[in-house]
Amino acid sequence: MPAHAAEKTYQIGTDVTYPPFEFANSNNKYVGIDIDLMNAIAKTENFKVNIKAIGFNAAVQALQSGQIDGVMAGMAITPERQEKFDFSDPYYKTGFVMAVAKNSHIRNFKQLRGKRVALKTGTAAAAYAESLKAKYGFRTVIFDDSDNMYNDVTTGNSIACFEDNPVMQYAIKTGLKLKIVTKPAQGGHYGFAVMKGQNQELLTKFNAGLRKIKKNGQYNKIVNTYLDNSATKQQQELNSTTQKNNHTFIGLLRQNKDALLKGLGKTIELTLVSIICATIFGIFLGLLGVLPNKFAQSISVTLIYILRGLPLLVLALFIYNGIPSLTGTKISAFAAGVITLSLNEGAYTAAFVRGGIEAVDTGQMEAARSLGLPFSKAMRKIILPQGLKIMVPSFINQFIITLKDTSILSIIGLLELTQTGKIIIARNLEGFRIWTIVAVIYLLLITILTWFSKLIEKKLAEK
């Protein structure tokens, strides 16, 4: 085989909250049936993979926009998906089941009439449930991740949820307080997906590697590692043994501190870079709005209106998935996140920059011009120093808003603090405690920034 073929590295997207197919273990290393199968096949066929745990929806959208080469994420092969994607040979057979709370009296679909059912967005199990909705008269609510879907049932907000059978079995055996009440239905198959007509070489390698690891027994060994009764029983016993130590707030913090610190670091990095870019863009846009030029003012007003009017989530998806689809140029999740925050927060910054300048008595500009100072020098020497005192509190407040808005960018797979929390919860199902820890971290950061803001306001007031 040529040397360059051995060095080929494919970008593979996967889910982050779908055990036993993909999840982070107690060491916060990505493992699971899909992860292990892909790595085994890559090794067998002599190619490399960079597996990106970005979430199912983000992975599918990234594949469609050309950001990644394939998706390996417990993806059911359906006729609708085959219209857009080329699938590998099936690598796992599954079926959909309904699960309810342990003390629930629900036993069949007929008992769902008039009640609410929880589903996970984008899954084949959700599509199956939707196909039953009209017949059995139940309502549905959609969640982005499995943990929130499960919690909606355990807390009684929803009466049931639909999930792939092996996923639900694994979750229950490792501690989830639900029970399966239906037999697996609409048996389907999981497949590895690439865009239709693209990456056919990768698809051929995957199929060849899958056949080889099935023949040599490696496939069964991988699957049994996660689904064998003895393995799940051992995991359940481990969960029970460590419940008191590792499932307390202190235990969870100690066990996941490295992952949380890494997520916090990414959040801070994203915030700092974005606020710098947003400040530069916002000042430019704000100054454009006060120039004695109707055309410049119109550009400023229009951009501020558009960028403030777009929901941050929509803007993030457009930049990360929409622009690459139009231009064919890949954009990293971090770059897309920075651009999103810079445009959105920059528009707000521009608004208060313009407002701060306009708050300065107009007579001062007139007096400066009457003394022969050009507009630019009068603005720089007289107006801006006074407007700055008015703007500074708003600048700090915008910094805080930018910090909080980074959590929305988990939608494009950025591994910041919120996404880190989702990944940890997928493993231990401790949603309340983990989100409490994440909330406290955000609150501490915001408290520090608020204190800093008040300190600056005080200093400025003394001058």
From TrEMBL:
<keyword id="KW-1133">Transmembrane helix</keyword>
<dbReference type="GO" id="GO:0043190">
    <property type="term" value="C:ATP-binding cassette (ABC) transporter complex"/>
</dbReference>
<dbReference type="InterPro" id="IPR001638">
    <property type="entry name" value="Solute-binding_3/MltF_N"/>
</dbReference>
<protein>
    <submittedName>
        <fullName>Glutamine abc transporter, periplasmic glutamine-binding protein</fullName>
    </submittedName>
</protein>
<feature type="transmembrane region" description="Helical">
    <location>
        <begin position="303"/>
        <end position="323"/>
    </location>
</feature>
<dbReference type="Pfam" id="PF00528">
    <property type="entry name" value="BPD_transp_1"/>
</dbReference>
<feature type="domain" description="ABC transmembrane type-1">
    <location>
        <begin position="264"/>
        <end position="453"/>
    </location>
</feature>
<feature type="transmembrane region" description="Helical">
    <location>
        <begin position="432"/>
        <end position="453"/>
    </location>
</feature>
<dbReference type="InterPro" id="IPR035906">
    <property type="entry name" value="MetI-like_sf"/>
</dbReference>
<keyword id="KW-0472">Membrane</keyword>
<dbReference type="InterPro" id="IPR043429">
    <property type="entry name" value="ArtM/GltK/GlnP/TcyL/YhdX-like"/>
</dbReference>
<comment type="similarity">
    <text>Belongs to the binding-protein-dependent transport system permease family.</text>
</comment>
<keyword id="KW-1003">Cell membrane</keyword>
<keyword id="KW-0812">Transmembrane</keyword>
<dbReference type="InterPro" id="IPR001320">
    <property type="entry name" value="Iontro_rcpt_C"/>
</dbReference>
<dbReference type="GO" id="GO:0015276">
    <property type="term" value="F:ligand-gated monoatomic ion channel activity"/>
</dbReference>
<keyword id="KW-0813">Transport</keyword>
<feature type="transmembrane region" description="Helical">
    <location>
        <begin position="270"/>
        <end position="291"/>
    </location>
</feature>
<dbReference type="InterPro" id="IPR010065">
    <property type="entry name" value="AA_ABC_transptr_permease_3TM"/>
</dbReference>
<dbReference type="GO" id="GO:0006865">
    <property type="term" value="P:amino acid transport"/>
</dbReference>
<dbReference type="InterPro" id="IPR000515">
    <property type="entry name" value="MetI-like"/>
</dbReference>
<dbReference type="Pfam" id="PF00497">
    <property type="entry name" value="SBP_bac_3"/>
</dbReference>
